[in-house]
Write a structure and sequence with these properties.
The chain is an alpha+beta fold. The chain is built from three helices and three strands, in the order H-E-H-E-E-H.
Length: 94
């Protein structure tokens, strides 16, 4: 009886999640430009977003990839800064 009572209470108190609750330090930006070559995506979209990101404090590195019809930018942030504040600034500038 002891094992059943404490077993059930332990299962109820156990916290679990499908994905671990880890704070990310990356922000991903995806841009879709239908019918454009990788060079057009890079010159028309990616460069402009990268230029706007340069003045935001807390950004360590910006990495971009241009593909046909789309492009993606990965922004690495400093852990000392609050991610929500950086994300707000990124949304505001881009």
């Amino acid at each position: 009886m002891f094992f059943i009572v404490f077993g059930i209470s332990g299962v109820i108190a156990l916290k679990s999640s499908f994905f671990p609750l880890i704070d990310s330090k990356f922000i991903s930006i995806n841009a879709i430009y239908p019918g454009a070559s990788p060079q057009e995506v890079e010159e028309g979209v990616i460069y402009k977003i990268e230029e706007n990101l340069k003045g935001i404090p807390g950004i360590i590195r910006v990495t971009s990839t241009s593909r046909e019809n789309s492009g993606s930018i990965l922004v690495e942030t400093d852990e000392k800064f609050e991610l929500d504040a950086i994300l707000f600034e990124v949304k505001k500038c881009c």
